[in-house]
Amino acid sequence: MPINENFITQGVVDVINERKRQELQEGWTDLHDDALDDGVLAGAGASYAMNAASQLHPQTQLPLDEIPPWWQLSRSWWKPKSPREDLVKAAALIIAEIDKIDRSGASDHEAGLIKSFIGDFLETKYPDNPQIDVSLSEAYTALTEFCKNHSSAYIPSMTTFRYWLVARNIKCLRRGGIMRLCGKVLRKKAKGREHHG
Prior knowledge:
- This protein is mainly α.
- The chain has two domains: 8-104, no CATH class; 108-196, no CATH class.
- It contains eight helices and no strands.
- Helix 5 crosses helix 6 (136-149).
- The longest helix has 22 residues, at 83-104.
- It is elongated, with a radius of gyration of 22 Å.
- The chain starts with 9 loop residues before the first helix and ends with a helix.
- The relative contact order is 0.11.
Protein backbone atom coordinates (compact mmCIF):
# COMPACT_ATOMS: atom_id res chain seq x y z
CA MET A 1 0.00 0.00 0.00
CA PRO A 2 1.58 3.32 -1.07
CA ILE A 3 2.27 5.80 1.72
CA ASN A 4 0.48 9.14 1.51
CA GLU A 5 3.07 11.90 1.82
CA ASN A 6 0.72 13.75 4.18
CA PHE A 7 1.40 11.04 6.77
CA ILE A 8 5.14 11.77 6.76
CA THR A 9 5.05 14.31 9.57
CA GLN A 10 8.04 15.67 11.44
CA GLY A 11 7.32 13.13 14.17
CA VAL A 12 7.61 10.23 11.73
CA VAL A 13 10.85 11.63 10.32
CA ASP A 14 12.28 12.04 13.83
CA VAL A 15 11.40 8.44 14.76
CA ILE A 16 13.11 7.11 11.62
CA ASN A 17 16.20 9.24 12.33
CA GLU A 18 16.27 8.04 15.95
CA ARG A 19 16.10 4.42 14.81
CA LYS A 20 19.06 5.06 12.49
CA ARG A 21 20.94 6.81 15.30
CA GLN A 22 20.42 3.82 17.60
CA GLU A 23 21.83 1.56 14.91
CA LEU A 24 24.77 3.68 13.72
CA GLN A 25 25.86 5.42 16.92
CA GLU A 26 24.83 2.99 19.65
CA GLY A 27 25.48 -0.21 17.70
CA TRP A 28 21.90 -1.51 18.09
CA THR A 29 21.91 -3.33 14.77
CA ASP A 30 19.54 -6.11 13.74
CA LEU A 31 22.06 -8.69 14.92
CA HIS A 32 22.38 -6.93 18.29
CA ASP A 33 18.60 -6.71 18.71
CA ASP A 34 18.07 -10.36 17.76
CA ALA A 35 20.43 -11.43 20.54
CA LEU A 36 18.14 -9.77 23.14
CA ASP A 37 15.27 -11.63 24.78
CA ASP A 38 11.90 -11.11 23.13
CA GLY A 39 10.05 -8.13 24.56
CA VAL A 40 13.10 -6.27 25.87
CA LEU A 41 12.91 -3.58 23.20
CA ALA A 42 9.15 -3.25 23.58
CA GLY A 43 9.58 -2.92 27.35
CA ALA A 44 12.21 -0.22 26.87
CA GLY A 45 9.90 1.65 24.51
CA ALA A 46 7.00 1.35 26.94
CA SER A 47 9.20 2.69 29.75
CA TYR A 48 10.08 5.84 27.81
CA ALA A 49 6.44 6.29 26.77
CA MET A 50 5.27 6.00 30.39
CA ASN A 51 7.91 8.49 31.52
CA ALA A 52 6.66 10.96 28.91
CA ALA A 53 3.04 10.32 29.88
CA SER A 54 3.83 11.01 33.54
CA GLN A 55 5.37 14.36 32.65
CA LEU A 56 2.56 15.33 30.29
CA HIS A 57 -0.34 14.32 32.55
CA PRO A 58 -1.86 17.39 34.26
CA GLN A 59 -2.07 15.64 37.65
CA THR A 60 1.58 14.60 37.80
CA GLN A 61 3.70 16.67 35.40
CA LEU A 62 6.77 14.94 36.78
CA PRO A 63 9.04 12.20 35.44
CA LEU A 64 8.74 8.77 37.01
CA ASP A 65 10.42 8.35 40.39
CA GLU A 66 12.20 5.19 39.28
CA ILE A 67 12.81 3.07 36.24
CA PRO A 68 9.65 1.08 35.33
CA PRO A 69 9.75 -2.64 36.25
CA TRP A 70 9.50 -3.71 32.61
CA TRP A 71 12.82 -1.99 31.80
CA GLN A 72 15.11 -5.02 31.24
CA LEU A 73 18.24 -3.27 30.01
CA SER A 74 21.17 -2.01 32.06
CA ARG A 75 20.41 1.07 34.16
CA SER A 76 23.14 2.90 32.26
CA TRP A 77 20.94 2.83 29.14
CA TRP A 78 18.06 4.65 30.89
CA LYS A 79 18.46 8.21 29.59
CA PRO A 80 15.12 10.05 29.81
CA LYS A 81 14.89 13.58 28.42
CA SER A 82 11.95 15.75 27.42
CA PRO A 83 8.52 14.14 26.86
CA ARG A 84 8.79 14.58 23.09
CA GLU A 85 12.30 13.10 22.94
CA ASP A 86 11.20 10.19 25.11
CA LEU A 87 8.22 9.50 22.84
CA VAL A 88 10.45 9.54 19.75
CA LYS A 89 12.83 7.12 21.43
CA ALA A 90 9.91 4.94 22.56
CA ALA A 91 8.49 4.73 19.04
CA ALA A 92 11.90 3.83 17.58
CA LEU A 93 12.39 1.04 20.15
CA ILE A 94 8.91 -0.34 19.52
CA ILE A 95 9.57 -0.36 15.77
CA ALA A 96 12.81 -2.24 16.48
CA GLU A 97 10.80 -4.89 18.38
CA ILE A 98 8.30 -5.12 15.50
CA ASP A 99 11.15 -5.62 13.02
CA LYS A 100 12.62 -8.28 15.30
CA ILE A 101 9.29 -10.12 15.35
CA ASP A 102 9.11 -9.96 11.56
CA ARG A 103 12.62 -11.40 11.25
CA SER A 104 12.17 -14.17 13.79
CA GLY A 105 8.77 -14.99 12.39
CA ALA A 106 11.10 -15.86 9.58
CA SER A 107 8.91 -18.87 9.66
CA ASP A 108 8.80 -22.28 11.19
CA HIS A 109 9.40 -23.68 7.72
CA GLU A 110 12.74 -21.87 7.41
CA ALA A 111 13.76 -22.85 10.92
CA GLY A 112 12.83 -26.46 10.19
CA LEU A 113 14.91 -26.47 7.02
CA ILE A 114 17.94 -25.03 8.80
CA LYS A 115 17.69 -27.39 11.76
CA SER A 116 17.35 -30.42 9.48
CA PHE A 117 20.32 -29.20 7.45
CA ILE A 118 22.55 -28.79 10.51
CA GLY A 119 22.06 -32.41 11.57
CA ASP A 120 22.33 -33.75 8.03
CA PHE A 121 25.45 -31.69 7.35
CA LEU A 122 27.41 -33.50 10.05
CA GLU A 123 26.04 -36.97 9.51
CA THR A 124 26.76 -37.01 5.78
CA LYS A 125 29.88 -34.87 5.45
CA TYR A 126 31.58 -35.52 8.77
CA PRO A 127 30.15 -38.82 10.10
CA ASP A 128 33.18 -39.63 12.24
CA ASN A 129 34.08 -36.12 13.37
CA PRO A 130 31.27 -33.85 14.58
CA GLN A 131 33.88 -31.35 15.82
CA ILE A 132 34.32 -29.32 12.64
CA ASP A 133 35.39 -25.80 11.83
CA VAL A 134 33.30 -24.19 9.10
CA SER A 135 32.81 -20.63 7.89
CA LEU A 136 29.41 -18.98 7.51
CA SER A 137 29.74 -18.89 3.72
CA GLU A 138 30.69 -22.58 3.56
CA ALA A 139 27.78 -23.50 5.79
CA TYR A 140 25.35 -21.38 3.77
CA THR A 141 26.53 -22.92 0.48
CA ALA A 142 25.90 -26.34 1.97
CA LEU A 143 22.46 -25.18 3.17
CA THR A 144 21.42 -24.13 -0.34
CA GLU A 145 22.54 -27.51 -1.71
CA PHE A 146 20.63 -29.28 1.04
CA CYS A 147 17.42 -27.39 0.19
CA LYS A 148 17.80 -28.20 -3.53
CA ASN A 149 18.48 -31.87 -2.82
CA HIS A 150 15.35 -32.03 -0.68
CA SER A 151 13.24 -30.43 -3.41
CA SER A 152 12.49 -27.41 -1.27
CA ALA A 153 10.89 -24.62 -3.27
CA TYR A 154 12.26 -22.18 -0.72
CA ILE A 155 15.85 -21.50 0.33
CA PRO A 156 16.38 -19.33 3.43
CA SER A 157 18.44 -16.22 2.74
CA MET A 158 21.94 -15.80 4.16
CA THR A 159 20.50 -13.12 6.47
CA THR A 160 17.81 -15.47 7.80
CA PHE A 161 20.43 -18.18 8.34
CA ARG A 162 22.65 -15.77 10.27
CA TYR A 163 19.69 -14.50 12.37
CA TRP A 164 18.71 -18.09 13.19
CA LEU A 165 22.21 -18.78 14.49
CA VAL A 166 22.43 -15.51 16.45
CA ALA A 167 19.05 -16.19 18.06
CA ARG A 168 20.63 -19.35 19.47
CA ASN A 169 23.68 -17.45 20.74
CA ILE A 170 25.85 -18.66 17.87
CA LYS A 171 27.52 -15.31 17.40
CA CYS A 172 30.02 -16.48 14.81
CA LEU A 173 30.86 -19.68 13.01
CA ARG A 174 34.36 -20.00 14.34
CA ARG A 175 35.66 -22.91 16.34
CA GLY A 176 32.83 -24.02 18.60
CA GLY A 177 30.02 -22.13 16.89
CA ILE A 178 28.18 -24.42 14.52
CA MET A 179 29.96 -27.36 16.14
CA ARG A 180 28.16 -26.98 19.47
CA LEU A 181 24.84 -26.56 17.75
CA CYS A 182 25.39 -29.58 15.54
CA GLY A 183 26.42 -31.67 18.52
CA LYS A 184 23.12 -30.90 20.24
CA VAL A 185 21.15 -31.86 17.15
CA LEU A 186 23.03 -35.13 16.80
CA ARG A 187 22.63 -36.01 20.48
CA LYS A 188 18.87 -35.51 20.18
CA LYS A 189 18.78 -37.74 17.11
CA ALA A 190 20.85 -40.42 18.85
CA LYS A 191 18.57 -40.35 21.90
CA GLY A 192 15.56 -40.72 19.64
CA ARG A 193 17.09 -43.76 17.97
CA GLU A 194 17.91 -45.34 21.35
CA HIS A 195 14.39 -44.71 22.56
CA HIS A 196 12.85 -46.36 19.50
CA GLY A 197 15.49 -49.10 19.30
